[in-house]
């Protein structure tokens, strides 16, 4: 009896579909760990360099700015050389940033290191999402929320692991080096699983696509990513400071606020593929935005530590599937390479990551972090009102 070969397996040099799925999950996990390891470092760096909220907010511009600078070029590089080459090379270089961030001795060094970290993280982000779209296309199932769920697990693991190592008495540089080595070894191990982009999907789009201006829909999807990334960035850069400065938690424990956010986001994303298949992307975005709005208001308006942690959970649940819906839609736009359309959406998203934490810092300096979080709730409400656009 003749069988139909796996389209991924028969691509020139490509990994099998199960292997590609596993490698994709791992690189999302690695990226999440790398990014979230920075969150518990923020209070230490702020105190070590003697920065106020506005100064820290200005320095954080470099993180999102680095990602923004790299993403438009990464879309072209990934389409030209393949997602695997970008993921592996940028992934290894990304790991070098963590020990450097733990040992910054000046504002200039902090800005330069955050810029470098953002460039490498942005490169991995675009390439891994483009590869994920190809794997999703091959399988015929919704997988993007699940992949992003592993990113959220990484967000939990990185923040909790570094906080745990610090609580055990390990110095910040030693803890960062330990995590960086583990991540680099993982990237080297999974590189064969990413072997060979799924070539027939590349041919499908390549015959029609030209690497020019992305379509208008990619920009519209990117605007929704803009707000979602602002919300996620506010948790990454300000949740620990909010718990320490406003709710009075000790610095060694403040990173667990981001861990609560990441746990909830992971849970939402692991159930997201089923929710989207059952209720559709419009319902998913609309309800998710509403839950996230409630979470921000709870954090800002109820002066209790447990209420704040619950608010972080609601923000994670609500925001969990907005970005995967946008990336999946962008990656399937007809006549456009996935790496290019995803680069457009992620670039606008990282504009949000860039402007969000910095804007929160300026608003917090002028008023308070609570007021800044209320403003963030208002922007997410606009996403909910615009949810019909994802149809």
Topology (elements, then pairings):
Elements: H1 7-10, H2 17-37, H3 41-49, H4 53-81, H5 83-95, H6 97-101, H7 107-139, H8 144-167, H9 172-190, H10 199-206, H11 216-246, H12 251-254, H13 256-270, H14 272-279, H15 281-301, H16 305-319, H17 322-331, H18 338-366, H19 369-385
Helix pairs in contact: 2-5, 2-7, 2-8, 2-9, 4-5, 4-7, 4-18, 5-7, 5-9, 7-18, 8-9, 8-13, 11-13, 11-16, 11-17, 11-18, 11-19, 13-16, 14-15, 15-16, 15-19, 17-18, 18-19
Provide a compact summary of the structure.
With about 400 residues, the chain is an all-alpha fold. It has helices at about 5-10, 15-35, 40-50, 55-80, 85-95, 95-100, 105-140, 145-165, 170-190, 200-205, 215-245, 250-255, 255-270, 270-280, 280-300, 305-320, 320-330, 340-365, 370-385.
Spell out the key features of this protein.
single chain; 391 residues; globular; disordered N terminus
What does this structure look like?
The longest helix has 33 residues, at 107-139. The chain is globular and about 50 Å long. With 391 residues, the protein is mainly α. The protein has a single domain (14-390), classed as MFS general substrate transporter like domains (Growth Hormone, Chain: A). The protein contains 19 helices and no strands. It has helices at residues 7-10, 17-37, 41-49, 53-81, 83-95, 97-101, 107-139, 144-167, 172-190, 199-206, 216-246, 251-254, 256-270, 272-279, 281-301, 305-319, 322-331, 338-366, 369-385. Helix 8 (144-167) runs antiparallel to helix 13. Mean pLDDT is 81; it is low at 1-13 and 198-211.
């Amino acid at each position: 009896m003749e069988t139909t070969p796996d389209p991924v397996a028969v691509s020139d040099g490509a990994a099998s579909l199960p292997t590609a799925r596993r490698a994709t999950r791992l690189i999302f996990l690695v990226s999440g760990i790398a990014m979230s390891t920075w969150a518990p470092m923020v209070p230490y760096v702020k105190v070590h360099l003697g920065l106020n909220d506005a100064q820290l907010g200005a320095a954080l511009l470099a993180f999102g700015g680095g990602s923004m600078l790299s993403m438009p070029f990464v879309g072209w590089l990934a389409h030209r050389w393949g997602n695997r080459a970008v993921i592996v090379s940028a992934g290894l270089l990304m790991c070098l940033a963590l020990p450097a961030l733990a040992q910054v001795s000046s504002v200039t060094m902090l800005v330069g290191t955050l810029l470098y970290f953002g460039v490498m993280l942005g490169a991995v982000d675009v390439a891994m999402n483009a590869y994920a779209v190809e794997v999703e296309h091959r399988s015929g199932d919704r997988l993007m929320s699940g992949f992003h769920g592993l990113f959220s697990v990484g967000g939990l693991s990185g923040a909790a692991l570094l906080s745990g190592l610090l609580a055990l008495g390990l110095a910040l540089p030693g803890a960062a080096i330990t995590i960086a080595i583990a991540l680099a070894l993982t990237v080297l191990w999974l590189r064969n699983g990413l072997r060979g982009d799924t070539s027939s999907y590349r041919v499908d789009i390549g015959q029609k696509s030209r690497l020019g201006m992305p379509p208008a829909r990619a920009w519209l999807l990117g605007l929704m990513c803009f707000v979602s990334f602002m919300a996620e960035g506010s948790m990454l850069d300000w949740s620990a400071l909010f718990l320490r400065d406003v709710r009075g938690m000790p610095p060694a424990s403040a990173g667990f606020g981001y861990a609560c956010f990441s746990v909830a986001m992971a849970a939402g994303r692991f159930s997201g593929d089923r929710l989207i298949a059952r209720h559709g992307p419009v319902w998913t975005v609309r309800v998710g935005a509403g839950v996230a709005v409630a979470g921000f208001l709870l954090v800002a308006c109820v002066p209790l530590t447990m209420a704040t942690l619950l608010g972080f959970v609601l923000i994670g649940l609500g925001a969990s599937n907005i970005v995967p819906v946008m990336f999946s839609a962008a990656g399937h736009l007809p006549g456009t390479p996935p790496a290019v359309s995803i680069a457009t959406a992620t670039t606008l998203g990282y504009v949000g990551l860039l402007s969000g934490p910095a804007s929160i810092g300026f608003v917090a300096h002028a008023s308070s972090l609570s007021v800044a979080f209320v403003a963030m709730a208002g922007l997410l409400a606009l996403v909910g009102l615009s949810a019909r656009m994802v149809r």
